[in-house]
Request: fold
Amino acid sequence: MTSVHRRPRIPLLSSLAPRAPFARLPRVATVSLPLAAATVLAHGLAGCAGPGKAAGGPDTGSYYEQSVSWKPCAQERDREVDRETDTSDTRAECGWLKVPYTYADPRKGELRLAVMRYRTRDQDHRAGSLVVNFGGPGESGLKQLTAYGPDGISKAGTRYDLVTFDPRGVGASSPVRCDDDRDPRRTGEDGTSRAGMADYLAAQEKALKRCRTEPGGVLRHVGTVNTARDMDVLRAALGEDRLHYLGYSYGSRLGAVYAHHFPGKVGRMVMDGVDEPAPDMKETTLAQTAAYHKALRHAVDTCTRKGDEDCVLGSDTDDAMEEIEEAFDELDEEPRDWPDGRRLDRDTAVAETMGLLRSRAGLPEVPNLLAALVHHVRPGESATMARAAAERADGKGTDGRYDNSDDALTAVNCADTAGRYRAEDVLDAYDDFVRASPVFGPSMAAGMALCTGWPGAGDDAARDVGAPGAPKILMHTSEYDPATPVGWLPRMARAVGPSAVTMTDPGGGHGVYGSADAACVNERIDAFLLDGTLPRDGTRCT
Reply:
């Protein structure tokens, strides 16, 4: 997308992993519904049959015979790859991987996946390749690994080649694209009020019907099950017997689906910011709405406990929250003058507050941003940080262009669920969202109807994540994670089964492994990835 007037992304049902800088801010949680591909094979794909062939299924063995031809990313001529990696370290290498549109019938054609790696400097003690998915769904792996750099994911790069890819439908891999004018607000529609909801969703439905893919053909096959199968082809192309994997946010569900289909191929697998294993757009979005409010109150309480002299919001958390809620309501009626000549409306304030809440590094600035809204003073550095966070969450690059992450997120979510909510369903649930959060609820309510108007049916195959035959999988979520509520962690653990080992920490932020201020989390995950040492199940990392 090229428009700079898009509606700020409001969490729907998925979430993204950290982005650099600011503790690598993850994209706004956006309905991270695990969504299955339109065409799905029977279970047990590679666990029971030979490589690339499910029992009784079509032979895809030729895809498993590939190897990636790596070259410096700076020499890559693909325009999108060049854009995603233009600031990468000189060690970055890029390549391509071929996969079928659908594993159910490989004769229907194939597409290319863009892949990238940073080779570990210590090749003598190399532990293998660590494949990283940064969430979304819809996040460009190449763009995110570029932001992290070869040394940005704690100590993982000291022993592993860090490998990522743009999943099908994302970035440089046959990207899904929708109408540039899909933003209903550009036609004057209001997606935050009860009165404007029906017109807003009608405009969305009309816009979504014009979605397409480049070069075409993959739109019906972008779901999580097919992407999990792509990861197994990537594993083989990397020459690895097992997949060592790090999945942030939605990437945790992708990892769980992989473990379900390929339990015998799971290596050391880590999930950070663990997603809901069987999402429903209404219930998942409601849970996220409540989690954002919980994270907001925690940030306010952390400040007010310091007292009047040290907290710009005062010393009483309840009073401060009441004033904050009133300030956001006022933005509905009267947008505020803001730095850089901007006018700050409610949607923008919500998106920017969310961005700071998702970042460990951004959390200390939340009270300053809120105090500026409440007391009508200049927000200082907090406004710059918040705006940057929201723009990265919305897929805006340094060149001012938008990537296709928003469209890809919708495509995968809507492929992965058979459920569809209507405008009247949103209206019926609107008050539930406002009760869950007077601050965020009005903006998030429309998220439950993300797939209204999507040009294709979905299914629920990606909900199958049971992996009783897999080795231990380490799962972590922060207690005040706003995008993937900590209550989803035990749900995913139960769904995966005895392989799951869970860990929490008492902080905030979303997808914190690799953040400078997450020392305990980094140490425990590093110990597992590098040495195979697991924390005790249920560990609270302090």
Q: What stands out?
A: Confidence is low (pLDDT under 50) at residues 1-50, 181-188. The radius of gyration is 22 Å. The longest strand covers residues 110-118. The chain has 16 helices and 14 strands.
